[in-house]
Amino acid sequence: MLSRRRARLRYLVLQCQRDGIESWETLGAILAGISGTQLKAFLRGAPIDDGVAREIEWTTNRPSGWLDAPTDDVLDD
To answer: Residue 8: CB partners within 8 Å, gap ≥ 6?
Structure first.
């Protein structure tokens, strides 16, 4: 489950970067109200707890549980 969350989070970060958002601090604030350092830690393997996962989903207008879904449909958004 944690690797799915990380893969989905990586996808969201890449989407933001394609939209021109490059600052890690801004990315963290936009995606979950977290620091850029914490966002980088999640992408490197730190566990993403359920509260943070639900916040990311809510902030990015994704359904609850989206971060935990299989990643084969990531590009179907």
So the answer is: 66, 67, 69, 71, 74
Q: Global pTM?
A: 0.84
pLDDT, tens only, 3-41: 889 999 999 999 999 999 999 999 999 999 999 999 999
39: part of which helix (H) or strand (E)? helix 36-44
> Residue 67 class from Cβ within 10 Å (0-12 exposed, 13-18 middle, 19+ buried)?
buried
Cβ–Cβ contacts within 10 Å for residue 28, how many?
Answer: 19
**Burial class of residue 39, CB neighbours in 10 A (0-12, 13-18, 19+):** buried
